[in-house]
Write a structure and sequence with these properties.
By secondary structure, this protein is α+β, with helices and mostly antiparallel strands. Helix content is about 30%, strand content about 20%. It contains 28 helices and 23 strands. Strands 1-2-3-5-6-7-8-11 form an eight-stranded antiparallel beta barrel. A hairpin with a 2-residue loop joins strand 14 and strand 15. Helix 1 crosses helix 3 and helix 21 crosses helix 25. The protein is elongated, with a radius of gyration of 34 Å. The two termini are about 55 Å apart. About 5% of the residues have low confidence.
Amino acid sequence: MTAFLNSSNFTTGSSDEQQSLAQALSDILKNEYHGSFFVLLAEYQRILADNHQRQRWPEIHKKLDTLFKCGSAEVISGPMIGIPVSIRDSDYFKEAAQLLGKERSLMATIEWMATAWNATYADTGLWMGKTFEPVSRETVAAKTHNDAKTMSGYDPATVRIGRNFFREPPDPNALQAIGLPALTQLWKLKDRPLRPDARGFDCQLLAENLAKEKAIPYSKTGGYFLCNMGTSVVPEMQGKKVYQLNYRWPDLGPVYPMTRLIDEIVRIDDGIYLGQLVFATQHYSLGALVLPNGHVVSIGDNYPYCSMIDNIKRIFPMGWMDEKDPYGYQNNGFFLMVDPAYAKAFYADDAFPQLRPRPGEIGFNELGYAQMASTACVSEGEKAAAAGVQHWPEITDWVDGWKQNEALKHKFTTFILEESPKGAEDGDVTQLLREGESILQMLQRISAEISAQSNPQDNLKHFEKLNRLFRRGVAPTVENGLFQGHGARGFNIRIDSDETADWYGETTRTAGFDYYHGATLNLHCGFTETFCPDSNAKPGDEYLFPGRLASNLALGHSTPNVLNLIWHSIGKYIFPWAGKSYEKISGRKLSMLLDESDDLAERYLERVHALKTHLASAPHYTLVEKNKAHYWDAEGVYAQHLKSGAWDRGMSGEDKAFWENEAAAHWVDGHNIQDKRVTAADPLMRIVDMNYRIPDAALQAASAAGPSPFARQGYIFLGVDDRESILPMNNGDGKKKKVFQFHYRFPMIGGPVPIGFCLDEIVEIADGLYLGQLIYSTALDKPFHSSVDPAEYHYQLFGYFLLLDDAWQYHRLAIGLDTLS
């Protein structure tokens, strides 16, 4: 059954005791073990975590004691998932109880620690495991004050330094909510390290171990220990060989009760380790006080304890007998540790599902739980209906039912407008809305009219209603780093994620996340205006791809709107674009993505390497090389605030303050979002788009509660407010249209061709409804630099799209605007 459990691993006092131990192990393996120690130990843990089954606790403890005695001592390396199996009180009257023929005293059998633990944290995953990292002789010497016994046993193959993993409980009550924050302060816990060069750890962080840790959902780490092969300090273990973890050395910074703690571990099966908690009952420290003069005074006895006899032994070292261990170590419970390679079995429904990574935590995506949750859900239509019922219970028909809700009726029929730069020339766009229809139904009608007019003859004049509406819309803003519209709330959702990520050495968390569903209204071949500025003339067929196709479509001299035809007939079924998301951006990240310095490869080695190795980002990498070669005479727009260096390479405090203020006042970190159809192409998308990612589970969960969940993010952009439109058609004589822009063009942004030629603009036209212009440079041979006049890039309109909040999306799905059905 297992090659690691054997009664011969424990030395007993007699053959009868040895036979009794062998029989106890045999009984467990024959009668209770059914092919999985995960299932067996989970059953033990459930009994020991149930205060109503305390009458069974002694029996289960004996079985765990048997398994521990029969386990094999092995060196442990790397991270391990963990769960406490039991907690036991220290028995300060144990010797007196044994004189009376009892194993434990009456006071200890109260088990108040176990009772309290079970009532609060037993199944919350507050403690999630440990990691064991290589440690140098010098570090061990420093931590132990060059302790002779410890240093004589130093072997880099067996000695490790370790730390524990801690996690926020799910849906914590008032008491549980203070657990991790309190431990963080008391035990000086650190954030989870994400990179091997993370600072503040007295060990070598190995990349392979950090990768394994992705199967373990934790956020804080600390509680350090030194470990090596050794013999058990618990008298009842009779010198059993164990892998021993010592937390007690003062220079490890232990805080009570770690000042009492020794862990001992054995292996019981492939990837499964059983540990026992061992606490000193004598000669331990309760903590330390820092006196006004700076001296540190221990409350209790420091470790290692040094008695008067010990001092005499140092002076007269010869002829002394070894004394009894002074600490009175006792078993205070058991814990389980598991190799992350067995994570799925550990988190299985019949084992420890309560510890399974939750949405928003590391491990949820990595172990496939996000995908499992997605496939287990009901259809999108059912979810949309359920969400609709939850928020607007009176609406069962989103085509017209919104009219019965006064708030939605106002939202769906009220424009958000400002004066057009062209003044009265654009007229009253509110007259476009017909009696009884919503603004979205109006847009659907206008889109159908444009398709009918432009499909046979692609001409921008057919888009004039949308052009007018865009010029009257109001640009959203950024407030304190958050995307902000002008409606009642000004956002769709706003959530922060607890999941951490690494941005080239900076640990980041998604903050202020907001997203909008996307719909395409109409497309247009913007090259037409570049090659033939006169809208009443026809461009030569030799200039335009659509023109070459015209004769084949038997449309005479007209140029069909091939882009629009392809999108509505084929494209929307193939391309899984689902909208856009926004989140806060740090000054550090913003300064990198807007940098056009001549030494980008030195400033951002990893990022530039990614640009170079993702061939689809070749246009962006070309800009890196051209900046290096000083291709442009003028400096970039933000050069003055980048001359002191990159953020991590000498940037001045004044420039850092500029970037932090700029990020908070004007910019957001943007992604295009894709629906679940894209997941089948994950391997390809990771090659094509260097910014392609699986969203944090918390973000996916939030979208799953809405009408149309998204599955991936990519095609990143920088969103910026208070900008003048780059399209001449949007501006009037002496007055520029203010818009919100999506920047894809700066070299460090990256992304697949042709996104590097794109610069979109949006305005809000109703509460939570945004009209966007798809804009591309048609000067394909002119590399981008922010110092260049935008007019030189011949930006042209390539179509209109919408961004919709959840309420608009329910309505959109019902009326079938640019949907798959």
